[in-house]
Design goal:
The chain is built from 13 helices and ten strands. It is α/β, with parallel strands linked by helices. Strands 7-6-5-8-9-10 form a six-stranded parallel sheet, with helices on both faces. Strands 2-1-4-3 form a four-stranded parallel sheet, with helices on one face. The chain starts with a helix and ends with a strand.
Length: 358
């Protein structure tokens, strides 16, 4: 047998041996799309997260909450795995039970407050551990200083068990199941069961508190010394006109709604002062600025300061949206709100002092 023949036989044997070893001992089992677990009959989590989670599961052997947060939060690219915000694995254990959280992150302050509060309330009802993505917690932390629900950084290294996810308390049957709230499944009725406690969660930081209190104090110093009743009024206009027309075929509420609401408070309480905050303070000044007991406070305030001003008032009037809704919830007292379908949030009906009005 010549030298070339021996060489080729040896080469063929080596190739066969490597092939057999690869078949017998694969490196790892990579799940296919069909293997990504989710609740049967339901879209896993949200439409936007579904595709990206499946893609991540296809390429990552262990899918962690850091991976999930990366999919949920636009700013997550700044939070590298070596970031100081991520806890060391040796310092924080993974949750012993399942968790409650949310994956549909949309909107501004009022919507994010509902998302946070829903996770908080679900955890309180079930005993699960609550966590929220940092893109919710970090934004709210800029406003409130007593938040108790931690962010995903505490469990960033922990594996995500998709097969244990359910979308609501109604589907939840075991403490081994995590409740991950998808889109449009906020829990106002559950949150409002503990309204006094959620007010403690949304405690404004010192800087915002001082600014809001200073606005009201400076106003009262300019007036005769009396016992005043402060009524916060939230007017939402700039971004809502197109939305109302497109979704409900409605136009923005007119001056008449606010006049009727102010007449209600004037007839019931003495020395009412109406403090207007709005994304359109010019409209408020034009419509109500000549009234002696009306003051427009939004010209130099941030949205967070506007909400704090509402919270320090005795009562509330608002037209649309979650911003005015939270201002009213934090203030307590009586609330007059515009009688429209989207404002009839399930759960507020338990408050006898919330009155719809046209």
């Amino acid at each position: 047998m010549n030298r070339n023949t021996k060489f080729f036989r040896t080469l063929i044997l080596l190739v066969l041996l490597v092939t057999l070893m690869y078949i017998a001992f694969p490196l790892h089992d990579v799940p296919s799309k069909q293997q990504v677990p989710h609740v049967p009959g339901k879209s896993p989590l949200s439409d936007s997260v579904q595709v990206r989670n499946i893609s991540a599961a296809n390429v990552s052997f262990t899918y962690t909450y850091r991976d999930l947060e990366f999919n949920l939060c636009k700013e997550a690219k700044k939070w590298t795995s070596n970031s100081d915000q991520d806890k060391k694995k040796s310092e924080v254990q993974c949750p012993r039970k399942a968790i409650s959280s949310v994956v549909f992150i949309k909107g501004r302050t009022g919507n994010q407050m509902w998302e946070y509060a829903s996770v908080w309330a679900v955890a309180r009802r079930t005993g699960l551990e609550p966590y929220v993505p940092r893109c919710i917690r970090n934004r709210l932390k800029e406003i409130f200083d007593m938040l108790t629900v931690p962010g995903f950084e505490d469990i960033a290294h922990c594996p995500v068990e998709f097969k244990t996810f359910v979308n609501s308390i109604e589907e939840w049957t075991s403490t081994n199941q995590s409740i991950i709230l998808p889109r449009y499944t906020l829990q106002p009725e559950l949150v409002l069961t503990w309204v006094q406690d959620i007010r403690q969660e949304f405690h404004f930081n010192k800087e915002i508190r001082n600014k809001a209190q200073r606005v009201l104090l400076d106003l009262s110093r300019k007036l005769p010394r009396k016992e005043y009743t402060f009524v916060g009024v939230h007017v939402r206009r700039t971004d809502y006109q197109g939305y109302l027309d497109r979704k409900y075929g409605e136009k923005l509420v007119t001056k008449a709604f606010f006049i009727n609401a102010m007449n209600y408070f004037n007839s019931k309480y003495s020395n009412c002062l109406f403090i207007y905050v709005s994304d359109d303070p010019g409209w408020c000044s034009k419509q109500f600025g000549r009234m002696k007991n009306v003051f427009v406070a939004s010209n130099e305030n941030s949205p967070a300061e506007d909400m704090a001003i509402l919270s320090y008032c005795n009562h509330t009037i608002y037209d649309y949206g979650t911003f005015g809704e939270w201002g009213a919830l934090l203030a307590g007292g009586e609330t007059i709100y515009l009688n429209m379908t989207q404002n009839m949030r399930k759960g507020t009906g338990k408050f006898m002092n919330w009155i719809p009005m046209k």
